Amino acid sequence: MDRKLVLTFIAILSIVAGTGLILSADAPIEKSATVAATTSYIVQGQSVATVADAVRAVGGEVTQELTIINAVGAQLTETQLSELKAADPSIRIHLDGVVEIAGGNGQGIPTAEHPNLIGADQLWDEGITGLGVTVAVLDTGAHRFDGLKYDTNGASRILATYVVEFDTEDPSSYPYWHDPNGHGTHVAGIIVNSEGSKKSRRPNGVAPDANLVVVDAFDSLGQATYLDIIQGINWVVMNKARFDIRILNLSLSAPPRSHYWDDPMNQAVMAAWQAGIVVVASAGNTGPDAMTIGVPGNVPYVITVGAMSDNETPKDSGDDFLASFSAAGPTHEGFVKPELVAPGGHVVSMMQKNGRIATTHSEFHDKGTYFTMSGTSQAAAVVSGTVALMLQADPSLTPDDVKCRVMSSARPAVAADGTLAYSVFQQGAGMVDAYAAVHSDAGGCANNGMDINLDLTNQMHYGGRANQDENGDYYLMGLDGYMWTNGYMWTNGYMWTNGYMWTNGYMWTNAYMWTDGSVNADGYLWTNGYLWTNAYLWTNGYMWTNGYMWTNSLTESAGINLWVDQE
Predict the structure, then answer these.
(1) Is the pLDDT of residue 42 over 80?
(2) Which structural domains are found in the chain, ordered by start?
(3) Is 282 a catalytic residue?
(4) pTM
(5) Among the options 326, 377, 408, 440, which is catalytic?
(6) Contacts of 249 (CB under 8 A, 6+ apart)
(7) What is the rounded CA–CA span in Å between residue 221 and residue 100?
């Protein structure tokens, strides 16, 4: 059965059952067969050739080659799976699963002016527009509006369109390459749209002259598999030099199902960062509770972005607030996430009228070119555009340099008395400030204490400073003043200011070596007996459960249980 038909069938079944969409990456992707049903797996080992031979030796089907993580996609029966595990215990086997875009529909009249909210418009006046910087957007595709096709000078800037389903760079062979869903177009428009609304007459994209590479990995419902995402990331890394790809936007999310270093999608994301690509990921729309950051936002190296709202008053910053759907940290390994927040409520961007989202929610479309949407997908796109501006201004910046500067220049939300309005586990360093980030000279303040090469080769893994005390409150070990108390108001507005003094700087970004679930004498109180001891399938015999049924959808694509900005 075709992969996209399988995903559609899963969605239909969940709707009929009255449970919403299956969002868990734990949900198995099965393929019909006349003799025995097969299931989709990611099989990982010393090399692609080795694991491919092992899969074929037991009669399995190799569906994809994922050189980025030394793995293949495979269809296996239960018998073949058992034989493969017995034949080579060193091979790791991950169950494939569903990943979803991390957007939500907007509401109200289009008012958000995201470039102005972060100071990008001031940079345009200085000639900093993202010119010459290439951003890869891995999403549902992109409709070729002129604002995406051409920069502000009228030069063509879509360098490539790669379609994962057909493993092709020739979109003419793909009847829906223009984005039947709409989410990818919306995200890409936030980053690079060179046109603006008739009212503003200013570019709607943060980096209106940046180059664009489109990676179509999702179906019309906004769903993909782990294999699809990894294959898309694999293509981006393999073609980094060819298109000079500096940024990868991942506006998607799935529930964590293992430690960050064991997750195959996270491994691919880490490999992209290692290759010199700045990866910007959505935090997810599963907030506001603690420990709700999704995959791949839980990767400690990357820039993970939560969402704030301008309360539909872009000229008044005093009533801005953190969007209640925005996922919060810490991660299960104790890292503070998100790194920062960005405009993600009521964001106006491009979307074709006949896209699935636009037709399902026509009330949010202006009947022309623009659609209003909320979500951490949109917030991540704002930060990707910011990074493009930073890299035009200083092409020598490494991914760690970019992360350091974008965090150190962020503006935390503060209450009237000057204290933090939200915990670092909710807002990270604060709201992105593109102007300050471009003009920052900060360095050495991100990903300290970690070695991504050791992490990827499974020699060393890391934990952050976050822990949980006996009362259930989250705090940062060795640092005072950064407590999650659950006492913050979500509906009141706060000022996002540069005037707050961070005690001990950004020490929360430093990592410890992870040893048997403990990073120091304190350990992590939540690690003992945590959820994935019975919830995943590696070759050591742990089995994934049959998958979690998530009744609150974090995607707008199916038109069910939509996350909206809650005010």
Answers:
(1) yes
(2) 100-452 (3.40.50.200)
(3) no
(4) 0.85
(5) 377
(6) 135, 136, 137, 138, 139, 187, 191, 280, 380, 381, 384
(7) 9
